[in-house]
Amino acid sequence: MVCQVPPPSAMVSYSLLFLLASSVSLGVLCQEPETQAIDSKSGKACCKALRNELPPSVGVFARGTPEYNARHQTYYSLQQQELFPTCTVKPNSASDVSRVLQIAKAHKCPFAVASGGHMSWKGSSNIDGGVVIDLRALNQIDISAKDQTVKLGPGSPWINVYAALAPFNISTTGARNNFVGVGGFLAGGGITFESVNKGFGANSVFNYEVVLANGSIVSVNKDTNADLFWALKLAGSNFGVITQYEMTTFPQPVIWGAVSAYPITNQSTSDLLGAFETYGHDDTNTDYFQSVAYASAGGVDVFSVVQGTLDGVPQGPLTSVEPISHSELVGSTHDVINQVIQGALAPTARAHWYTFTTKIDKQFFQDMRTRADNIFAPLNNRDGLTVVVGFQALQKSFIAKSAGSPVFNALSQANDDLVFVLLLVTWDDPADELVMRNATNALGAWGEAEAQRRGLLSQFVYLNYANEEQRIYERAVTKEDLDRLRSVQKSYDPSGTFTKLWRGGYKIPPVGYHGAETSTGVQEERNGSTARDAQSDEL
């Protein structure tokens, strides 16, 4: 299957939504992620058991049926679409999910769980030959105007949430992309327009409804199952299937949002990265947001900037250089995402991502762009190649809002403003998979080693931007917090059902392992548990 690549300026905007939107040789040895197929006989037996033991209201769909195909085609990543479960099962309630898990456990059925299906890597929320638990029917949006809260099912896309909240003139901390689902976004943290003053999107969740490994349905909040409440702020696929998020809301801001693409010149580089550096150190202006990225597509290199205000006041350009394209709007969150940021962008891509975290340094950002040019120069003739190097600021005020999350201590260690660096590479030809992964990983490895050498590197890796080879729990939390997560996991899933059967998302590594240091000081990524060892979704 070949994806349709948007024009360069559109692709830049699309990539920025994820911000908003080893060896450095291309000869480095790299293998495509292993996604071991489940024995077909076992898969068929599991699907038969589901059909026989579930009520008729819960659909179990075989490959080739319209319902199966509808689920399969919603995956953002074309690599995900290369996996074919034996069947998909579509629960309508938490009780249905409970029954599905009990059947899967009894018959030892490997499964994956998908809500929006927007995680980028192969096997993250899909499975070859097993069962996919499709949460799209858990798409409730129950609004309490009196309490200023909302109950969300994991299967809703955020654009539907914003549309439902708009008539009540309220909003909540959701994604900056039409296609992203509620479930995966919040399970990985989630960066929002309001993150400078509210932190990660998951910070606004005050109650979870969760189906545990034994099939019980529990409420999880700061007073009930408080240890699990803390752990679910970095849930991954370790503790239970979340069937409802109860979130606080706030008055709907009138947002000014703008997306601009600029030619890369000495002037634009200095101005735009300088403005981003200033923004990254300013946590006083909580009504302003900005992300910047370098992108190369179809022989055109640009800097793209997404900026906006939560008070609706337009801002002037960040450089005197004339933009190649510019779009802006004053309106609701729904309107700004739908009309300015999202545009007419392709919902699928053949992609590889890589992320790491650094302190703010304008020269380092410039050097990342130069290195990207050098590494990808031999590949410029490959069909559909787009290379994005993007930067998302995390001011200290942002980090402080995450005090109730497992990631807080790891993020706080630098005692400084930070930046998530996202490398996002897309291409057309499946035959280019290995070389594109090699190149992206080489750029990321160089960036981490160079940031370490300059005293800029943070250990933190953000789950929703990571690929399957990156060690999330070894790097997103401290050793003490990792031990605490292991304790919570053992308490709520003592038999290890989700470790053994849930293929997808990021797994907590075995006891006693917290990564090893390389000669550069960057944690070793080759040992311990990986995402692909027991293969959730966002952004």
Descriptive notes:
- GO terms for molecular function: FAD binding; oxidoreductase activity.
- The protein has 539 residues and is an alpha+beta fold.
- The chain is built from 17 helices and 19 strands.
- It has three domains: 40-134, Uridine Diphospho-n-acetylenolpyruvylglucosamine Reductase, domain 3 (2-Layer Sandwich), CATH 3.30.465; 141-251, Uridine Diphospho-n-acetylenolpyruvylglucosamine Reductase, domain 3, CATH 3.30.465; 254-331 and 349-465, Vanillyl-alcohol Oxidase, Chain A, domain 3, CATH 3.40.462.20.
Q: What is the first-to-last residue Cα distance? A: 23 Å
Tally of individual helices: 17
Helical proportion?
25-40%
Low-confidence stretches: 1-34, 516-539
The CATH architecture assignment of the largest domain turns out to be 3-Layer(aba) Sandwich
Number of strands: 19
Structural class: alpha+beta
Tell me the fraction of residues in β-strands, as a range. Answer: 15-25%
Rg result: 22 Å
Shape: globular
GO molecular function: FAD binding; oxidoreductase activity
Domain FAD-binding PCMH-type: 81-252
Protein name: FAD-binding PCMH-type domain-containing protein
Organism: Marasmius oreades (fairy-ring Marasmius)
